[in-house]
C-alpha cells in the first residue's frame, strides 16, 4: 500500500531548452524525448501516481504546445491532475518555485523534480523518510562517478546535510544532488519569497544544517547529452519494471516508417484522385525485401488536404486502397498506415506545431505502442526534412531520399549543424539497401 500522500503535490521542472541534445531538441522538448517508446516525462508521471500524488504542475517554455498536448493526454487518463505553468522567459529552477507559490496551498509537502533525469526511484519510501525526520527539506542523493560536475553534499551521522557545494573543485564526497527534493509547504513558500533564480547555487546552501540527504542506490541518469540519452535507451529494458499488458510481453520488432508522396508513390500536389497513384520505381521491391528481413512496414503521412476540405477521409481511403492494390500486384504490402489530417500554421517544416503532424513524432510513437515496435532499432525514410526530424524525434535512425524533390537532397539538411545525424539516398530502393546493410549512423 502506498503511504498516505493525499496532501503532497509535485512541481515538475521541464521547461529547459536541452541545448546539448540539439538537433533533437530543436523539434521536441527535452521532457518528451522518447525512451523505450515513451516520453521521458511519462516515467515521472508513473512515479508520482504510484506514490499517490494526485496534483502536479509542470513548467513549459520550449515547444510548449507539445507539452500542452501531453498534459491533455495525462489528464484524460485520470491518474493525476497535471497543470501547465508557462514561462515566456525561463525563470530558473528557483524562479519557477516563486511563480508557483500557490502550489503549497492545501498541501503538506511539495515534491520538486528535475524531469531531465531518467530514474527508477520509488517516491514512496522517500516521502516516508521525509515525514519521519522532522527537518523541512530532503534532498535525494546518488553516488556520482564525477563529483566535480555535480552539486555535492556531505552528511553527518544522522543523515543531515552539513555542507553543499555546486561543482566543487575538491569534492567532500561523491554524494551528488539528484535534482529531486521534498519540501514542507511552509518552507516552499519561504523559497518562493526569496525571488532567487537557481535552487542549487542560491537556495540550497541556505538550508545546510536544516535538510536531510536520502541516498538512492538505484538507477539515476541525467540525459543531458546524446551519449547519456543513448545509454539510457540501452539500459531501459533492465531499468524499467516489465509492463503488464500482453503486447509489452512480446518481443519488440524493428520497423521501417516511410513517407508516402515522393517516397513510395509519385508526388502529386494534393493528390485527390486514385487514378493518379503511381508507385515509384523499385519501391515495391524495396518493401518486399524489408518485409523478408523482418521489418514492420509502416506508412506515416501528413494529409492536410483533409483539414483543408480538399478531400474527405473516405477519398483518402480510396487512394490508399489503390496504392495497396498496386503493391499487392507486385507481391508486397504495408503493415500499417497512419495519417494526420491537420493543417499546418506555417511553412516551416522543421517546427513542430502538432505532436502528430510530421516533424512531430506522434504517428511513429503511436505505431510503436500499437504494434510493439522498438524505435531505437527502426528507421524513418522520407523526402523532406519533416520526415527526417519525425524519425529523429521518435528515436529512430533516418534516411532522406531525393526522389520527391526537385532540388538537391542536401538543401533540406538541418541548418547550423555539423553532424546532420541522418543518411541520404537517391530513392527508397537505395535507402532499403542502406537499412538492410545497416551502415547507418546514429
Descriptive keywords:
442 residues; Rossmann fold; 14 helices; 19 strands; 31% helix
Structure characterization notes:
The structure is a single chain. With 442 residues, this protein is of the alpha/beta class. The protein is built from 14 helices and 19 strands. It has helices spanning 40-50, 64-77, 93-99, 123-133, 185-194, 199-203, 226-239, 246-249, 283-292, 304-307, 313-329, 362-371, 385-393, 428-437, and strands at residues 8-13, 34-35, 38-39, 55-60, 81-86, 109-114, 117-119, 137-143, 151-155, 161-166, 175-184, 211-215, 220-222, 255-258, 296-302, 336-340, 379-382, 397-401, 423-425. Strands 1, 4, 5, 6, 8, 9, 10, 11 and 12 form a 9-stranded mixed sheet that branches. The protein has a 6-stranded parallel sheet with strand order 16-15-14-17-18-19, with helices on both faces. A hairpin with a 2-residue loop joins β2 (34-35) and β3. The model is unreliable at 1-6, 244-250 and 406-419 (pLDDT under 50).
Q: List the total number of helices.
A: 14
Question: What is the typical, i.e. mean, pLDDT?
Answer: 83
Number of domains: 2
The biggest beta sheet, please? 9 strands, mixed
What's the short version?
By secondary structure, the protein is an alpha/beta fold. The protein has 2 domains: 8-239, Spore Coat Polysaccharide Biosynthesis Protein SpsA, Chain A (Alpha-Beta Complex), CATH 3.90.550; 246-437, 3-Layer(aba) Sandwich (Rossmann fold), CATH 3.40.50.1000. Helices cover 31% and strands 21% of the residues.
